[in-house]
Structure to design on (129 residues):
């Protein structure tokens, strides 16, 4: 058994939720069910910035699917902050901040292609839970 790391290619569903609907559970379709409260700030190119809330449905290394409180236009740049369930040193709340672009929106089910992410600590009113 070798201790070297092996890279594995993953394939995202072509359409948000497609793997869930078709029952595809193959190893090359790696997404994880994740039910977390979130806030977002959407920045359309030609319209006023929109803020809202929602709940994540699933996430992979490059895509996030969430239920929004309102539809968001595909192509919109978006910043999403999710209330992360783990705490730093078992006491400080964390949030996962995701920056990306909306690739599709069906009613209020929004799919985001993730371009960058980071964990941040949050205190007081910043805490989402």
């Amino acid at each position: 058994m070798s201790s070297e790391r092996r890279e594995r290619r993953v394939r995202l569903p072509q359409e948000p939720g497609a793997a869930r609907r078709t029952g595809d559970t193959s190893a090359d379709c790696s997404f994880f069910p994740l039910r977390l409260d979130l806030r977002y700030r959407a920045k359309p190119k030609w319209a006023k910035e929109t803020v809202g809330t929602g709940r994540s449905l699933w996430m992979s290394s490059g895509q996030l699917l969430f239920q929004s409180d309102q539809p968001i236009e595909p192509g919109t740049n978006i910043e999403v902050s999710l209330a992360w369930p783990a705490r730093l040193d078992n006491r400080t709340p964390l949030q996962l901040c995701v920056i990306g672009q909306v690739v599709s929106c069906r009613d209020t089910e929004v799919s985001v292609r993730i371009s960058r992410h980071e964990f941040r600590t949050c205190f007081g009113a910043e805490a989402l839970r």
About this structure: The beta strands are 32-33, 37-43, 50-59, 63-68, 77-88, 92-106, 109-121.
